[in-house]
Amino acid sequence: MTTPNTAAPTSFAASSPQPRFNISPELRFAVLMTGLTLLGLLVGAAGQYLLKVPAVMWGGYLVAYLAGGIPAGREALHSLFVDRKLDVDLLMVVAALGAASIGQAADGAILLFLFSLSNTLQDWAMGRTKHAINALMDLNPAGATVRRDGRERWCELNDIRIGDMLIIKPGERIAADARVTLGQTAVDESPITGESLPIDKAVGTELASGTVNLNGSIEAEVLRPAGDSTLARLVALMEQAQTAKSRTETITERWESPYATVVIVAVPLVFVLLRYGFNLSVDTSWYRAMTFMVVASPCAVVISTPAVMLSAMAAAARGGVLFKSSAAMDTLARVNTIAFDKTGTLTQAKMTVARVVADDEAGALALAAGLESHSEHPIAQAVATAARAHNVSFVQVRNAQAVPGMGIEAALDSSERVWAGNLRLMEREGASLNPTQDTALRELNADGSSTVIVGMGSRVIAVMGVSDTLRPGIADAVAGLRAAGVAHQVMLTGDKAEVAQSVAHQIGLSEYRAELLPEDKLRIMGELPGPLAMVGDGVNDAPALARADLGIAVASGTDVAIESADVVLMKNDLGKLAGAVRLAKDARRTVFMNLTFAFGVILIIAPLAVAGHIPLPLGVIAHEGGTVFVVFMGLKLLRHRL
Which is it for the CA torsion 53, 59, 60, 61, positive or negative? Predict the structure, then answer.
């Protein structure tokens, strides 16, 4: 159904939040400290090896130790006295000081820089939770015009009460859940349900907060306050999903405390054993104990994952796939189920005329475009766009007017009545379908297309199907993911079952779930076998993106979806996703190899250092050589192409 334009065109720019890339003060501080640590390390190394100026050397290393050691030391003390556990923060600080005590300040500065860099990257990734919630809240308008006690007034969002009458103009975002009491319009519900087509609203139908009124002025009675609205429920779902996801432990969290405890406890035991068990001098025992701690410090272990993941993330970004954290890369490597949103993800969220059934297709399209040019309804715009694409001139009509709930009618210069709309309008005009038109209408309805019947007087001259278009190459993208090892793929959509079935069949998906609300998608996240990735673009996808093991958003999607996701497809090309899966699997294999090598070096060199067979210079070479090796293995991934 289409309705004529009853108001001046309204800009929708304000209703679509723009992406934000705010950096929190905490993250700024972390970046500053990491940068100062690196600067101090470089200055100290230059003073020691190039300039050979002790003042420059010690000044640089002092900056590195303070910038890298104070934040880590603060976290270490918090863990020690509040959480009652030893962690890798304490080990890194003690190892750095130990290295300095035996003349290897450079080694200690390197340890602190690598550890500071790792923590900063983690802080950056975790900061997206707050941004996602803020972006979702931005969908709420500041307030609304309401009629209360017979008077119209502007009310802020929290002042809107149950029973207030919302005065909603074209282009405005609906401020609260309400029921239409006056007027008719079409509403864009895609932010909430994912429904690709605007939904017609008449007296008695309900409106959801966060949706957008398209082309009619209406009044609606508030049913729920802002705190209980549909959008408020989305925020709550988002918070719950983020909380559930944050409980997942990383590999580092599982091994860091036991490892740090073992090394820190072992250092004094090594000293005591050498001093009193083997009767070595204090200086010798201390030297070997510190060498042991430097060698055992997990420098190569700490850099193993960042070196690989940063290289892989850079290679992916070059191909148009942005990973927000290394954890996202690791999760993608293990994903065996991918759930896709439909509208805006598998499709372009752009209505087009898919089929015209008429004896004279060009003439029918010209007449339909002439009628629909008087409307701003998306289906009307699709008809007009199709006519322009085929270089068809619009038929000029006069006295166009809407037929509520049915369509639009007008007159030709010959005074003959013409119309376009649904079956009810056709019946009102006394027209009927011939067998060919009836078959076409049934086929279009079965495919989930919206239909427009075009007539002249009591005669039907055309049946048109309007539908959302698939993204180019989407079937190949789905097949590519299957070839990359993601065997289980399912489509989740708020659209009708007929539409979902048609799209799934066209792109080669055997499983789909239709007519879903955001809470339904969130529930299904817990039912599908994991590890699970969710691909979406809309506000309604945000909770599911956050709840899934991995959230993937297309860059053309909403700010909320992009903020909530772990991965963003910057070029809206799902064909790159299969290459990203292969890259992630390569990265995970490389991380495993690096960790095996790094721990192997520690297990071999540390006992030899205690026995005195590895002097400090050789221990440092082995230690830093292992670090260089794992970094080199990571850099190899930069050559990867998606």
Answer: positive
| Mean predicted lDDT score pLDDT of the chain | 82
Q: Which two tokens stand for residue 341?
A: 């949103």
Residue 4 CA to its chain's centroid (Å)? 37
Residue 66 CB partners (closer than 8 Å, separation 6+): 40
Nearest to 144 by CA among 232, 219, 234, 235: 219
C-alpha separations of 494 from 1, 190, 223, 343, 601 in Å: 20, 9, 23, 9, 54
* E-assigned strand segments in 241-293: none
pTM (predicted TM-score): 0.64
Average pLDDT over every residue of 242-257 = 52
Degrees, nearest 5: CA angle 240-249-239: 10
Q: For the residues of 90-115, what is the DSSP string, one character each? A: HHHHHHHHHHHHTT-HHHHHHHHHHH
**Alpha-carbon distances of 219 from 72, 167, 198, 359, rounded to whole Å:** 58, 5, 18, 43
* Residue pointed to by tokens 């966060």: 210
- 344 DSSP assignment: I
Mean per-residue pLDDT, 573-586: 93
Ramachandran bin of 448, using left for φ above 0, alpha for ψ from -120 to 50, beta for the remaining angles: left
**Residue 577 pLDDT > 50, yes or no?**
yes
Q: DSSP string spanning 118-164?
A: HHHHHHHHHTHHHHHHHHHHTTS-SEEEEEETTEEEEEEGGG--TT-
Return the DSSP state at 37.
Answer: H
Q: What residue type is assigned to position 4 of the chain?
A: P
Residues designated as active site: 341
Q: Are 8 and 549 within 8 A, CB to CB?
A: no
